[in-house]
Amino acid sequence: MRVFVPNIGAVSAWGFGLSKAATSIGYLSAMGSVTHSIGFVTELWFMLASEAVSLALAVVVGLFAARGRIRPRSIPQWQALLVFLAGFCLSVSGVLAGLSAAVSASVIGVTYGISSFLLCVTWLEEFAYQEPRESHKNMVIGLCIQMVVVAATSLLPAFMVPVGAMFSALVSCLCHMDVTLRASGALDRGDGRTQARPALSAAETFEPVTARAFVAKYGASFACLFVLVGVVGILHTSVLGSSFEHIVGGVSMWIPLAVATLVTVAAALVALRLPDPTSVYKAVLPVMLVLLSLLPFMGELLGPFAGAVMIACYDVCGMLFLFFIVDAAHCHRQQSYLLSSVYMGGSNGFLALGLGIGLLLNYLSGDYDISIMTLLAFVAIYPLCIAFVVVMRRSMQGMRRTVQAQSDRAQDAAPAQAPSDAVPADFSIDRAEGSAAPAASAPPLPSEPDWEAALRTFAVHYRLTKRETEICSYLVRGRSAKRIAEELVISENTVWTHTKNVYAKTKVSGKDDLINLFECEALGGGVS
User: How many other β-carbons are positioned within 10 Å of the β-carbon of residue 368?
Assistant: First the structure.
C-alpha cells in the first residue's frame, strides 16, 4: 500500500499559515496574559518589550547577513518553538504573579519578540528557495489558513487560546523541519510538482551589500510600510483612556485580518509578479487620509469602522510585503535574512515610535484640553504625505532614468548621417599645398557584431533555457512584457515568470541592468 506523502509546497503552506496564526494569537492575547483585547495593541509593556527585543535581533541578524556571515537556512525554527512555549507557560502558570504587572508583561513580551522574529525569518527563507509562482501560491494558502485559525480561536473559551497557539507553533516547527530535510535530500520529496532549490554551496554565497546600495534599491518600499505602522501605533495609544477609545477598543481584530487576507489573496493572484509596495501604499493612502480628516468631525459616528479600516490597510501592506521580500530574495539573489531583518526591525521600531507619539498626544490632550482627534489627524497626516512625496519623487527619477536610457540606446542604434558637403572618406586635405589627395591609409570601418552569435554565447554562459533565451532576446532590445506577450502569443504572466528567471540567472535587478550586461559581455566580447 502506497502512503501519501504531501509535497513540499503543501507542507510549507500549512507550516507558514500555522506560524502566522500562532504569532497572531500570541500578539492579540499577549501570550495568554490578557483575556480581552483592546484593539491593535493588547498590553503596552508587553508590546514595548517585544518590539525592543525584535529590533535588537533584527540589527544583529541584519548586520551579519549584510556581510555574508550567515549561511542560507542556518537558523533553525525549533529555537523559536521553545521560546514561544516558554512564554505561554510563564504566562498561564502564574510563575510571574509575584512581580509587578510591568515587569511580568515585559518578560512575556521578550519571549514573544524572539519567537515571532525567528518564525518570520525562517519561513521567508524557505519560500525564497521556491519558484516565484509556487511560493506565491503557497503563501496565499498559508494566509488563508491563518485567517481561519485566528477566527476560530476567537470563538474559543479564554483557557483554550494558549492551547491553540502552542499547537499551531508546534505543527509549524514540524513542517519546517520536514521541508528543510526534504530540501537537503534526506527525505523523499513526494509526488508533488513543487520542488525546493538545493542549498547553496560555499562558492555561491550571497555578496555583501552596502547600506547605501540597500537604501537606494529598497528604501522607498520599506519607508511606505514603516510609516503606516507608525501611524497605526499613533492611532492606538493616542485614544486610550479618552472618549474615542472605542475606535480601537471596539475592533474585533480578526475582522480586519480577514478583510486584509482577502484583499491580499486577490492582489497576489492577479499580479503574479514582483509586487511593488509603493503601489500598494499609493492605493491605501487616500483611504487613510480621508478617515483621518473625518475623525475630528465624525469620530463618534465612524467609531470602530475607522479603526478597522486603517488596521486592515496596514495588514494588507504588511502581508504583500512578505511577497515582496520573497521575490526580491529569489530574483535579486539577495539574502532573505537581511530583507526579513529590516522588515521586522523597522516595523517594530516604527510601531514603538508611533506608540510613544500616541502617548504624548494623549498627555497633551488631557493637560492642555486639546481635541485628541485634531491632534491625531494633524500629526498622522504629515508622515503619510511626506512618504508619498518621497515615493513620487523616486518614481519620477526612475521614469527619467528609463527615458534617458531609451534615448541613449536609440541614438546609439541610429546610423551616423554624414553632411552633404562632407569630404569623401578616401580623400585627405594637403594643408601645405591646398590640394586634395587620396588618403594614404584610411582606418577601416568597424564591423557590426554578430548579434545572434552573441545571444547564443550569452545564453550558454548563463545557462538560459530555450524559452528564456527567446525572452532575453526581446528584453535586451528594450521590449516590454506586454509587447513580448503579444509577439510570442503567450500570457503576460508567463513572460514575467521567464523574465524573473533570466534576472535571477544573470544576477541583475532589472531590464536596464540586463541590457548593460549584454552589451558589455556579449557584444563587447566579455563572454567567452
Answer: 8
pTM of the model: 0.72
pLDDT computed for residue 2 by the predictor: 46
Angle made by CA atoms 50, 344, 291, in degrees to the nearest 5 = 90
Taking the C-alpha atoms of residue 335 and residue 221, their distance in angstroms, rounded to an integer, is 17
- pLDDT of 445 strictly over 90: no
Measure the CA dihedral 86/92/93/98, to 10°. Answer: 100
Q: Which amino acid is at 110?
A: V
253: helix, strand or coil:
coil
Q: Mind listing the pLDDT tens digit for each residue in 169-210?
A: 999 999 999 888 887 664 444 444 444 444 443 334 455 567
DSSP state of 159: G
Dist. CA 122–CA 140, nearest whole Å: 17
Residue 519 has what DSSP assignment? Answer: I
Q: What are phi and psi of 444, to 5 degrees?
A: -70, 145
Give dist(CA 363, CA 238) in Å, integer: 8
419 phi and psi, to 5 degrees? -65, 155
Cell of 99: 512581580
- Say whether pLDDT at 233 is over 80: yes
Do the beta carbons of residue 267 and residue 315 sit within 8 Å? no
pLDDT over threshold 90, residue 32: no
Residues 6+ apart with CB under 8 A from 304: 246, 247, 248, 249, 250, 251
Grid cell in block for residue 171: 505543527
Q: Are the CB atoms for 130 and 9 separated by under 8 Å?
A: yes
Question: Are the CB atoms for 282 and 225 separated by under 8 Å?
Answer: no
Contact indicator for 199, 73 with CB cutoff of 8 Å: yes
Q: Is the pLDDT of residue 500 over 60?
A: yes
Strands (E), 178-310: none
- Mean pLDDT score, 246-260: 81
Q: How far apart are CA 455 and CA 188, in angstroms?
A: 38
Instruction: Answer yes or no: are the C-beta atoms of 228 and 350 closer than 8 Å.
Output: no
In sequence order, the 6+-apart residues with CB closer than 8 A to the CB of 114 are: 53, 54, 57, 80, 83
For 43-87, write each residue's pLDDT tens digit. 788 989 999 999 999 999 998 888 878 888 889 999 999 999 999
pLDDT top residue among 389 and 60: 60
Q: How many whole angstroms separate alpha carbon 126 and alpha carbon 248?
A: 35
Question: What is residue 407's DSSP assignment?
Answer: H
Strands 427-430 and 435-438: antiparallel
